[in-house]
Specification:
heterodimer; A: mainly alpha; globular; B: MetI-like fold; 13 helices; 0% strand; elongated
């Protein structure tokens, strides 16, 4: 969705969510005086039922999808009734549903996520070849969002009420409300169609063929020392990165501004000012360090949500990543890919959220001291 | 959201409503948003009267006509026509009905389910809480658009199924919010007083506690409203939401994609309509947040 989605929904969550949640958890066990390890263990233990639930969901979704996996596998040629039975047995679809689930869980725990019905390749191999493309896109998007969003938020807060503040926050709210699939098309119309500066789709011009080393196009082209290929990869990356980065950029700018405003009103900032420190030092040292704590959380949460935004961005720019892979698999009814893809993506999102939570506890001295 | 104003009014004395309006109207953006939203609502309700043409009437003599400010335009079609000669303006006007309907339906669905689950979890705690919140965690672990896509694939593509899927994806946010608010309110004196005077669980949950959690809930509802519109448009764009020839804005964009370089206007206007609607609602949301909940104040 917008990845969307998931973006607005997290506005209140950011404020009521992690910080308070963490605080509640600490406050909940006053006598135990929990340490970091204890906290980590509890957080991880809490994930176990969720992971089991996710695997059940991914498994169940695919079982209730309309259509028959064997027929989907057979394709247009169809399959004889005898062969159908053999295949059913071979893939274990004749077993009771709970047994199928445990078989699935067992093979997943051994790292076997099944074989794609469409390409006949292992799902994990496909995922691993496509995932770097999504990571490269998501990291570039995040990079843009952070290097523009944080300074914009700081300036807006410092110059509160100025035309710059109003303008920036206006732009941020517009970005926040942006249907990114349309935004992508607009950028294509302008930069690719009208100006002819950027290519319309793909990761690199077809004239370049590089055997992947890291899977990250920008790094690979540099490793090969192929400068034209690097430029081509960069030109392919820029529009998708802008599109995917728009919403995180807006969220980060808004979050930085409000965190900064809150901190600028604190006593210690007033003290620092009263001591005669330069305004720059007050902002950059005293205020910014504290204001960035909630911003880091926001950034972390956005990383998880970028995976959702990648579906739209990758579809528009024909970017060969996992977002496009998932939507193609859904429309092709590639059950195995949908099932395991859902599971892998949910696990990644959970892992990122866990890291963000731990990072929050780690960098927030208030929680650490308690 | 124009409709939330009276809701707030009924839970507070008249001075409260006036106070709310005072804080809301200070925010210039919020007032602009409310004005735009009111106009959109008006357009949606009276769409058949306002639209110059029928949304699916095809004028075969005027395919892909540009908007009226272009030299090649056809004066009958202010914003031009699409590849099969349908008036874009009329389709946009009818599309407003779909988007606002989606917003209302999804928010009401997500609100009812989310509030119910949140109140149950926050009020009873224990295993009820653990069960409900773990289910919410599971839903939240999937990227919302991806989960909605899979749900629509299961239920079958279409506007109604898309709305159900989006409501399901959005409701955990309500549940979490309400749970936290209920837990905070539960041990206040007024709740104890109500309990002592013999109020049952049902009354305590829904009549005593819930109204005091309304502020953040209204803000969340506004945000979900704009989110629902965006997600429905995204599903429509991916071919899993409203199906053509429905004049839903996202679906219109999907069918216009191949013409983006040849006829940019068929792409520009539906997206602009989505952006304006969502922006208006988010402006209202910011205003509501400032007016209703001092703790959540943005600035």
């Amino acid at each position: 969705m917008q990845a969307d989605n998931g973006r607005l929904k997290d506005q209140p969550k950011q404020e009521t969510g992690l910080s308070q949640l963490a605080a509640q958890r600490w406050a909940g066990t006053p006598r135990a005086r929990p340490n970091m390890l204890n906290y980590i263990l509890r957080r991880v233990a809490l994930l176990v039922p969720t992971i089991i639930g996710i695997s059940i969901c991914a498994f169940a979704f695919v079982r209730v999808l309309p259509g028959d996996p064997i027929l989907a596998m057979a394709g247009q040629h169809g399959v004889t009734p005898e062969r159908y039975e053999i295949l059913r047995e071979q893939f274990g679809y004749n077993l009771p549903i709970w047994q199928q689930y445990f078989n699935y869980l067992w093979s997943v725990m051994q790292g076997d996520f099944g074989i794609s019905l469409a390409t006949k390749r292992p799902v994990l191999t496909e995922f691993m070849t496509l995932f770097p493309a999504t990571i490269e896109l998501a990291l570039s998007a995040m990079f843009l969002a952070v290097i523009i969003g944080i300074p914009a938020g700081i300036f807006a807060a410092v110059k509160r009420g100025s035309w710059f503040d109003q303008f920036t926050m206006g732009v941020a709210l517009t970005g926040y409300s942006m249907p990114i699939f349309w935004w992508g098309l607009l950028l294509i119309i302008f930069f690719s169609g009208y100006l002819g500066w950027t290519p319309v789709s793909g990761r690199i011009a077809l004239t370049f063929f590089l055997r992947p080393i890291t899977g990250f196009m920008l790094i690979d082209t540099l490793l090969y020392g192929n400068w034209p290929a690097f430029v081509s990869a960069l030109r392919h990356l820029i529009l998708p990165a802008i599109v995917l980065g728009t919403i995180p950029l807006a969220v980060i700018a808004r979050q930085t501004r409000s965190a900064m405003l809150e901190v600028l009103g604190e006593d210690y900032v007033r003290t620092a000012k009263a001591k005669g420190m330069s305004p720059n030092r007050v902002v950059n040292v005293h205020a910014l360090r504290n204001a960035l704590i909630p911003v880091v959380t926001t950034i972390g949460l956005q990383v998880g949500l970028l995976l959702g935004g990648a579906i739209l961005t990758e579809t528009i720019f024909t970017w060969p990543g996992i977002g496009k892979w998932m939507i193609d698999s859904i429309s092709k009814r590639d059950y195995v890919v949908v099932q395991s893809g859902l599971l892998i993506i949910a696990l990644i999102v959970m892992a990122v959220n866990l890291i963000v939570d731990l990072l929050y506890a780690l960098i927030n001295p208030r929680i650490r001291v308690q | 959201m124009a409709t939330t104003t009276p809701t707030v009014g009924t839970t507070k004395p008249v001075s409260g409503l006036r106070e709310f309006w005072f804080y809301f109207s200070v925010n210039r953006g919020a007032v602009i948003g409310l004005t735009v939203f009111t106009i959109l609502l008006f357009v949606a309700i009276f769409a058949p009267l306002i639209a110059p043409h029928l949304p699916d009437a095809q004028y075969r003599d005027a395919l892909l006509k540009p908007p009226i400010w272009d030299a090649n335009s056809d004066p009958r079609f202010i914003l031009g026509t699409d590849p099969v000669g349908r008036d874009i303006l009329s389709r946009l006007i009818h599309g407003a009905r779909y988007s606002l309907f989606i917003g209302f339906f999804v928010v009401i669905g997500a609100l009812v389910v989310g509030v119910l689950l949140g109140v149950l979890a926050g009020y009873f705690r224990g295993w009820v809480d653990a069960l409900i919140m773990r289910i919410m965690d599971i839903i939240l672990a999937f990227p919302p658009l991806l989960l909605a896509l899979v749900l629509v694939a299961i239920l079958g593509p279409g506007l109604f199924n898309a709305m159900i899927a989006i409501a399901l994806v959005l409701q955990p946010h309500f549940a979490r919010l309400v749970r936290a608010a209920v837990m905070a309110e539960k041990n206040r004196e007024y709740v104890t007083a109500a309990k002592l005077s013999g109020a049952g669980h049902f009354r305590l949950m829904l009549i005593t506690i819930l109204p005091n959690c309304l502020g953040p809930l209204i803000v969340q509802a506004t945000l979900s409203f704009s989110n629902a519109i965006l997600e429905a448009a995204a599903l429509g764009f991916l071919g899993m939401g409203a199906q053509p020839p429905t004049p839903e804005w996202g679906t219109m964009l999907a069918s216009a994609r191949e013409f983006i370089l040849k006829a940019p206007w068929v792409v520009t206007f539906p997206g602009l309509a989505i952006l304006i609607t969502v922006l208006a609602i988010n402006l209202i949301g910011d205003g509501l947040r400032d007016a209703l909940d001092p703790k959540l104040k943005r600035s």
